[in-house]
Amino acid sequence: MISKKIILIGDFATGKTSFIRRYVDNQFSDTYLSTIGVKISRKNIALEHETVQGLIWDIEGGTEIKPVNTTYLTGAHGCIIVADITREETIEHIANYLKTIGDIIPSAPVILVLNKRDMLENITAKNILEQVKQQYGQTVNDIYLGSAKSGSGVEEVFYTLAHSMLT
Amino acid sequence: MHIQEILNAINANHLYEYMVIDENLQIIEYSDMVFHLCETSIINYADMSLTQVVPELYGMEAEIEKIFQKEREVLTLPYIVKNTDQYVHIHIHPGRTSKEKKDHCETLIILFENITQQANIQQKLIQERNEKSLLLKEISEKNMQLKRFNEEMQVMVDSEIKKSRENQKIMEIQSRHAQIGEMIGMVTHQWKQPLNVINLIMNVLKIKLKKDPIEIDMFYETLDKVIMQVKHLNQTVVDFQNFFNPMKERVQFNLFEHIESVLRLLESEYQYKYIGIMIEGDRNIFAYGYPNEFKQILLSLLKNAKDAFEENPHENMQITIAISIDSGHACVQIKDNAGGIPVNMLDTLFDLYVTSKKEGSGLGLNIAKSMVENMQGSLTAQNLEDGAEFSLFLPFH
């Protein structure tokens, strides 16, 4: 079975750990606990013709005073950038993460997730998605609305990324 | 120092656990407790692949190869959370140098530095910092929402004020129309007397002319009487005409003269109803404001007194208008002896739609008060022993 290193990056408190926990353990907790450093989880991602073992790196969220440690990105095969749809600045910072990824692992496919969609009206979330698509649609492989809380979009994100890593 | 001695020293300190790997990334040696920081299910790592035991190094093979080639000195992965909830720094250092190739390493040492204690402290600090940052963000958003809410409220308030002003304007117009209607009634009254007099004079003249030729002096005298009555009629029309002519600028005006012009229009109706009106006080006091509005206010107050007398008639119905200077203001007090204002209405007397009359609109006093305030004056009311007293204060010149 092929193993692939997948990294999740984004600003702090965007829900990266919750997103992985929903995907790996199908669990969710409202309590916010900051991640420091990195924690690796594993999950097999079943595609149509093969299965990929995902080594999913939950990387400490970046802040303006403490950016993401780029050593963690070394050797990654795919990236998920997580932004909080209710916090505009986390969407604005997507460009910075894309630059870091481009510098270190330029060939890795990138999926963008606008997490916490459950906190906004459908129409508002879709409007924001359209704006983000206009801005980053050409730069990343795909953009999703997601919710670690409800589970919406979580499977699709990892499936699409696994598929992109193999093609 | 031999590599084994270094490893022994590390082992003795218990600060680090270690593994030694060869060029094929196979584990060839490890400290006894290293499994606590790695895959807990595996306890014999000998000949296992490095990335099987340390998945954090998966994908970093190229970088590890650089250390073998001595192209890179060290590789560090800080703050790795292991499955045992322990935090480690993973450091990869060069090990033994190849005897054949001096620029090449035969082994690498992977050190696992247990930093759980300091990581937990740091985690707390980061947690606090992040929570504070989120809180500040939330406060800032709430402030923005509050600001937007205030702005929306201001727009609504402005709109309501505008509507209220428009309604006030409409009410003023309606009230003015009602006053015009009443004034026409008064003018009719006022005209009846001189018209009767003229009619009488002309009839007497006609009778005299039929009987005897009259003297020219007497004829002129009769004409003068008629002219005087016509002047009186004309004055009534002029007073009426001026009454509702809006003035845009505030001017000085003589209170007595303007009160008199109002009374000229009213006197016959009030006489007809046996209501006596008396002016007292200084005739040379000037107020500063809009004279026509002053007359409308006075008319409204006098009409209220007249209405009160209609509900409470008696033999000595009397209105007194007193002009004076009071606390630096020109003051006009209108007193009547019509029984006074119901006590329960005194506090709300000037409020909109408040009236004690059966067919009253509740507009008159409210509009009168706003007109007075528009002239930077004030209007108050109180009960006297046998009636009411309205005091009108205006800027004094």
Please tag this protein with its features:
heterodimer; A: 167 residues; alpha/beta; 6-stranded mixed β-sheet; 26% strand; B: 397 residues; alpha+beta; Beta-Lactamase; Heat Shock Protein 90; 5-stranded antiparallel β-sheet; 5-stranded mixed β-sheet; 8 helices; 12 strands; 50% helix
Short account of what is shown:
The complex is a heterodimer of chains A (167) and B (397). Chain A is α/β, with parallel strands linked by helices and 167 residues long.
Which architecture name of one domain in chain B does CATH use?
2-Layer Sandwich
Topology, number of strands of chain A:
6
CATH topology of one domain in chain B: Heat Shock Protein 90
Tell me the helix content of chain B: 40-55%
Broad shape of chain A: globular
- Counted by DSSP, the helix tally of chain B is 8
Say what oligomer this is: heterodimer
The rounded distance between the terminal residues' Cα atoms of chain B is: 110 Å
Could you give me the name of the CATH homologous superfamily of chain A? Answer: P-loop containing nucleotide triphosphate hydrolases
Q: Structural class of the secondary elements of chain B?
A: alpha+beta
What is the chain-wise order of helices and strands of chain A?
EHEEEHHEHEH
- Sum up the overall morphology of chain B in one term: rod-shaped
Ends apart, CA distance between termini of chain A: 16 Å
Strands ordered across the widest β-sheet of chain B = 2-1-5-4-3
How is the topology of this model organized?
The complex is a heterodimer of chains A (about 170) and B (about 400).
Chain A: E1 2-9, H1 16-25, E2 38-46, E3 51-59, E4 78-84, H2 88-92, H3 94-104, E5 110-115, H4 122-136, E6 142-145, H5 154-166
Parallel strand pairs in A: 1-3, 1-4, 4-5, 5-6
Antiparallel strand pairs in A: 2-3
Chain B: H1 3-13, E1 16-22, E2 27-30, H2 50-53, H3 61-68, E3 75-81, E4 87-94, E5 107-114, H4 116-211, H5 216-243, E6 251-254, H6 255-272, E7 276-281, E8 286-289, H7 291-311, E9 318-326, E10 329-336, H8 364-374, E11 378-383, E12 388-395
Parallel strand pairs in B: 7-9
Antiparallel strand pairs in B: 1-2, 1-5, 3-4, 4-5, 6-8, 9-10, 10-12, 11-12
Helix pairs in contact in B: 4-5, 4-6, 5-6, 6-7, 7-8
